[in-house]
Each structure stands twice: as C-alpha cells, then as structure tokens.
Amino acid sequence: MDKFLAVARREYTERVRSKWFLFATFFGPLMMAVLLFLPAWLAGRSKPSADVTDIAIVDASGQNLGARISERMPPGGPVPEVRVVTPAEIAAAESTLTREVLDKKKTGYLVVDALTVSGERARYAGRNASTIPDMRLIEGAVSQAVLGKRFEDAGLDGERVRLLSKIDMQFKTERLSERGRGDAGENAVGLAYAVAMLLYMSIVLYGQSILMGVIEEKSQRVAEVVVASVSPDKLLAGKVVGVGAVGMTQQLVWVGSALLLMQFKDRIGAALGLAASGPSFTIPEVSVGTAVAFLVFFVLGYTLFSSMFAAAGSMVSSTQDAQQVATPLTLLILPSLLLLAPVLLEPSGTLARVVTLIPFTAPILMPVRMSLTSVPIVEVLGSMALLVLTCLGAIWLAARIYRVGVLMYGKKPSVTEVLRWVRLAR
C-alpha cells in the first residue's frame, strides 16, 4: 500500500506543479468569464449608431413614402431629410448626396421609388453601410412604412394594425418532476451540456495524459528502474489514482469558479459597465444525491478509460505509435458526443434509456439525463453496476497487458501477441 500511495503521490505532485496544469486550471475560469460577459459586451456593441438617422431620403415613389419612413425612425437623433424627386432626377440627387456624405455632412442616403412601394427594392449608400445594426434599423423602418401604406390602401388604420399585431411576450418555462417544481428548461439543458463537455474533456485529456506518461517512462527507461521496486499492478493503479486526483482538483477549481462567477455576475458586469441582455441564466438546483451520482460516474468513467489508455501506452515505445493505439479508445467515447443531441431532446426516450446503460457511454450520458429529468433509481443503479463490472474487467485486462508491455521495447505488438500477454501474465 505504501508503494501504491508513493506512486499516486508522485503522479499527482509532478502534474499539479507543472506550468501546463497551472495554465489550464486558471485559464479555464478566465474562459468562463469571457463566455459569460462577452454576450453582454457584444449586445452593447450591436446597438445602432447615434447618427444613424442623420441621413437623407430620396423619395421618388410619388406616394409620400419618404415621409412615412422618416416618421418611423427612432426619436432622439437628427430627423432624416426627405428630398422628393421624380424618377428622372434620382441620378442627380444621388450625385449631390454622395458629395455630402464624403464631406461628412450626411451619414448616408436612402433611395425609395415605385419598386419600394411594391416591396421589391430599396437602396442605401453611406459610411455606415457595413454596420449591421444601423442597416437593420433602416430596413425595419422601410418595411413598416411599406406595410402601413398597404394597410391604408386597404382601408385599414396602419398604426392601429401595427399596435394590435405587436407582441412582446416573455415565455417562461418551469420543469415539473417527482422532486417538485424545478428550474427553467433552458437552464437544465445548459447544465446538462456543460456537464457532458466537462466529463468528456476530463476523461479524454487525463486518459491520454496517462498514455503519454507511460510512453515517456518507457522511452527514458524509467519503467525498468521503477518496476524493480514496485509491482506493475501497483504502478498502474498508482498512475490511475494520481492522475485522477489531478483531474478532480482541476474540476473542483473549474466548478467552484463557475459558481462564484454565476453568484457575482451582476456585480462584475456592473463594475465593467456591461448591461445584461436576454434571459439571465441561473444554475439549476442539484440535489446532494445527484451530485454524488455525477462524481461516481466520473470516477468510474475515468477509471475505465484511463486503465485502457495506460495499457495502450505500455504496448508502444514511441509517440508516433501512440496516436494509432489511442484512436480506437477515443472512438469508444466519441459516441457519447454523437448521442448527446438525441438525449438532450428526449431524455426519457428509449434511446436515452439504452445508451445510459451502455458502459462506454453511460459515464457522460447518464449525468446528462439526470440533469434534465428524474431517472428511476433502478436505472441509475443498474447503469452503475454495469459500469463497475466493465471497469473491473478493463482493470484486469489492462493490468495483464501493462505487466508485460511496460518492459517490452521495439516494434508495436500484434493483436495475437497482446492476447498471448494476457494469457501468460501472472
């Protein structure tokens, strides 16, 4: 036991002291902050310009459309100048206004004619032509003016129709389950997606970290010295536990940072001068039992894949061959991402129930399902039981491969050779 703990402690301390671990651990919360506050910053930047209404409207429609458009521009800024012309005078009016725009007397000009009345075409030219919020505002004013004209031609009050047809309703959702009322469905989906990505990245990244560590020890002949004093089984177990503790440490930092950011996001946003936009996201309430289940599935999933990654690393002696042996293992976990969308859309469906029982997809998809809906305890325990049995089988197989492979050098072994290692290993 002492040797096992020594190996685990060495793996843990070596990795947490590395610059890469420190960078990834503290860069993660920074990325969370960027993703949390960037939408508010972009929302502030996506507002129309202050001088968006400082334009001229060349009205060749013959139906007073320019005045209608001017009335529908937002108040508070310059009133658009309307220049009524005939179709033959459009070119001369455009030439004059182009000079005014270049001399910065006007921001731009809008040309409307009979084709605009029929809903076919309107043209704009100006310094802000590439500013999307400005163009959306002007386009909206033109569309409203054309619709108002059509309503009046049909004998309807255009302004009254606009007010009656305008709906600015907030649609709120609330999840009902056996545990009672829950948080909004969008928040639950967001939590489920975040849980899936966190588990996937942790399992893959730290599984591959074990693989590369084994290869590095083999290439530097360190394994021969270590195995002389520690049995291969204890060495494998120590590596898995040590690297797993590193992953758990990093996850605790990330989750803790996320909770703190969500707790103080309004204060931080106010300090940065950012206005929140859209519905606010709150972390749905997670029971202690569900949190413990998340942890169990992570530990079991990590143990399953990391033991296989360690065995795969012991089979090769160079980083060039590492990618070839890691690819089949990555393909075993990839279906978890491919099946994520169907589980998010229908967490209680037959497909979701089946894939959360399969040991290679359950570590990620079962926590996702539990984030969205109440899963029967029988299914949770059944999934855990199958995952535990698969872990035990994978550990047994990985230990027998690792016991022989960690001291083997040269060409990559064939499948037949690996099977012979399993049979002959003691």
Describe the structure using short key phrases.
426 residues; mainly alpha; 2 domains; four-stranded mixed β-sheet; two-stranded antiparallel ribbon; 18 helices; 6 strands
Task: Explain the layout of strands and helices.
Layout: H1 2-16, H2 19-45, E1 55-59, H3 65-71, E2 81-84, H4 90-102, E3 108-112, H5 114-117, E4 123-126, H6 132-153, H7 158-165, E5 176-177, E6 180-181, H8 185-219, H9 222-227, H10 232-263, H11 265-271, H12 288-314, H13 319-338, H14 340-345, H15 350-355, H16 362-372, H17 377-405, H18 415-424
Parallel strand pairs: 1-2, 1-3
Antiparallel strand pairs: 3-4, 5-6
Largest sheet: 4 strands, mixed
Mean pLDDT: 78
Category by helix and strand content: mainly alpha
Number of helical regions: 18
Terminus-to-terminus distance: 19 Å
In helices, the fraction of residues equals 55-70%
Globally, the shape reads elongated
Give the SSE order as H and E letters. Answer: HHEHEHEHEHHEEHHHHHHHHHHH
How many strand units?
Answer: 6
| Largest beta sheet: strand ordering | 2-1-3-4
- What is the number of domains? 2
Q: In what range is the share of β-strand residues?
A: 5-15%
Low-confidence stretches: none
How does this structure look, described?
The structure is a single chain. With 426 residues, the chain is mostly helical. It has two domains: 2-42 and 178-424, no CATH class; 55-165, no CATH class. The chain is 67% helix and 5% strand. It contains 18 helices and six strands. The protein has helices spanning 2-16, 19-45, 65-71, 90-102, 114-117, 132-153, 158-165, 185-219, 222-227, 232-263, 265-271, 288-314, 319-338, 340-345, 350-355, 362-372, 377-405, 415-424, and strands at 55-59, 81-84, 108-112, 123-126, 176-177, 180-181. The chain has a four-stranded mixed beta sheet, with helices on both faces. A two-stranded antiparallel ribbon has the order 5-6. Strand 5 and strand 6 (180-181) form a beta hairpin. Helix 3 (65-71) crosses helix 6 (132-153), helix 8 packs antiparallel against helix 10 and helix 12 runs antiparallel to helix 16. The protein is elongated, with a radius of gyration of 32 Å. The protein starts with a helix and ends with a helix.
